[in-house]
Here is the input.
Amino acid sequence: MKGYAMLKIGEAGWIEKERPACGPLDAIIKPLALSPCTSDVHTVWEGAIGDRHNMILGHEGCGVVDEVGSLVKDFKKGDRIMVAAITPDWGSIEAQAGFGQHSGGMLAGWKFSNFKDGVFGEYFHVNEADANLAHLPDSISPEEACMLSDMVPTGFHGVELADVQFGDTVLVIGIGPVGLMAVAGTALRGASRIICVGTRKKCREVATSYGATDFIGYKDGPIDEQVMKLTDGQGVDKVVIAGGTVETFEPAVKCLKSGGRIGSVNYLGSGTYVTIPRIEWGCGMANKNICGGLMPGGRRRLEKLGSLVSSGKLDVKKLITHRFKGFEHVEEALLLMKDKPADLIKPVVVL
Here is the structure.
């Protein structure tokens, strides 16, 4: 089969591989729609998780079941499915502890384009199909299903990690697709004020539609100083970090109230240490909590987040700015994510 792969750090291209084999609990999927992610960019062009050779990229997509293992109960050939970017091993000790995304080791629930070939192939493999697939309702398009693979669950997980509550003032750093879903999740959680860091006009427009109330730009001065000015020196109750660098924690801590929480779902593609300011962190005793996490996966979460789309409570179509028809456009779509033109949020390739 054909696939678009990371050849080595700094290089990606088309390769031929064997069709994946199907285990008794697993499924083989033929994609219906695919979407590249900034994580793919970090992986290839920054070498963020180390060198990978001839590994098919991609972890956002949906498809049609082409084959199921002998022990799969709830799916059959021809079923349209959704799948999350994270596909845990649900019998693992880590999953039993409530952290399936780290089943088998840190980040090991993230299999696609990390430990095994991803979804940018003519076929892709899903482990533990009954637990990691979800039926794709007729009310959700394949394009929308791609957003449910990663953008929605990751953005919402940032909100969960920050523990956003009714009436909170929340800072969302980065309003790319994940940050926009953090804005949407923050609004659904009942925040009274949502301050966003981001400069692109298109992203600001969409963020406003999701509930953002204020905007600042990192080019306009230190983020924390701008936030403190907007809040009359009070700071914010919660912060969601969905973009930035290892230095982004510094302004987040500085403008966070004591007792507040930072939820970080940003993929830090480079750097060795994060920067946390000692004084503003109360010499380590300010009760300013920092929690970084990988989005959970699994069928139950997909179905619950999908119900928000089916019910009309969440419109993910606003994220999709560029559409392509045909598998051969995967490379073009990925390079868009690398170059990030001003009008881009997310590209989708429909097969």
